Amino acid sequence: MSFLPTLSSVARHRLLFLILCLVWGTTWLALKAGINAVPPAFFSGVRWAFAGIVLLGYRRFRHQRVLVSPRLLGRVIVMSVIMVSLCAVIQLYGMRQISSGLAAVINSALTPISMLGFAVAMHQERMTWRQGIAFAIGIAGILVLFGPSAIAGQVGLAELLGAAGVAASAMLYCVASVMSRRVMRIIPPVQLTGLTNLIGGVALLALSLPLEPGAWHAAGLAWGWAAWLAWLWLVLAGSLGASIIYFLLVRDWGASRTATYAFVTPVISVGLGMLVFHEHVDGTEALGMALMLAGAGLALRRPPVAKATDLTPAPPATTVRP
C-alpha cells in the first residue's frame, strides 16, 4: 500500500496482518454491545451500507472507477449477499444465544480449516505439510484456551442453534473470501470492499425493515451511547480499515494464509480483557495463547508455494466470464 512506501513487501504485509488482528480482536465486544441494543440485521445493515457509501464516494472524489462491468456485477452481488448479508444475520442472531467467547471459539476454529478447504477445492492453493501442522497447533491452542469454559455446564437447544449459526456464518464467509481472489485480479480491493459493503448493507436493510421486530423503531437512531460507540468502531476500524486490509491480504497471500488471523484475534481479545477489565489468565490459558501464536507464526513464516496460474498477470476484464 502506498502509505507504507519505506517497508519491504514482506514487512508491509506482516504489519497489515498485525493491524487486521488488532482490529478484529476487538470486534466481538463491539458486536455484542451493538446487538444488545439494536436489532441485529438493522444494526449491521446501517453499518455496512454507510461504509460502502464512504468508500465508493472516496473513489468517486478521486475520479476512480466505482461501478463494475455487467460481466462482473452478478458475481459481486452474489459475493456481497453471502459475505455481508447472510453472514451478518446468521452470525449476529447466533451470538444472541451464546457467549461471545464461545462464538470466538467456533469462528476461530472453523475459519482456517474452511479457508484452506475451499481454496484447495477451487484449485487456488495446495495443501502442504507445514500448513497442516500450523493449523493443528493453532486449533489445539484454541481448544486449550477456550475449550474448558465453552463445554462447561448444560447446553440447551437455543445455544446449539446459536452455535450452529455462528459456524454456518464462518463457512459462508470463507467460501465468499475464496471466490473474491479471482475477482480482485480485475477489481481493486478498495472498490470491491465498497461494493460488497454497500450491496450487502442495502440487502440487510431491505430484509430488516419489513421483517425484523423493532427495526422501524431503531430507524429513529435512539440507540444509546454504548451501541453508537460500538457502531462507530465497527464502521471506522472494521468496515473502512480492516476489511480493505483483509481483501489485500487474500489477494496477495491467499485465503488460507490470511485466515491465520483467527489464531491471533482470540489472544488479543483475552489480552484486552486483562488490560481493560483486569481479567485473570491462568497457566492453561497462557499455554493456549502461546500455541495459537506459534501456529500463526509457522503459517506466516514463508508463503505457500503458489500454482503457476497464480503467478501469471491478471487477465483483462474482457476475458473473464461472469
Q: How is this structure best described in words?
A:
- 76% of the residues lie in helices and 0% in strands.
- It is mostly helical and 322 residues long.
- Residues 303-322 have low confidence and may be disordered.
- The two termini are 28 Å apart.
- It has one domain (9-217, 225-305).
Give the helices and strands, then pairings.
Blueprint lengths: L8 H16 L2 H9 L4 H22 L8 H26 L4 H22 L7 H23 L5 H27 L5 H23 L3 H4 L6 H29 L1 H4 L2 H17 L5 H18 L7 H4 L11
Helix pairs in contact: 1-10, 1-12, 2-10, 3-4, 3-8, 3-10, 4-7, 4-8, 5-6, 5-7, 5-12, 6-13, 8-10, 12-13
Global outline: globular
Mean pLDDT: 79
Count of DSSP strands: 0
The share of residues in extended strands comes to under 5%
Content-based structural category: mainly alpha
| Largest sheet composition | none
The stretches of 5 or more residues where confidence is low (pLDDT under 50) are 303-322
Helical content, roughly? over 70%
Features:
mainly alpha; single chain; disordered C terminus
Summarize the structure.
With about 325 residues, the protein is mostly helical. Helix content is about 75%, strand content about 0%. It has one domain.
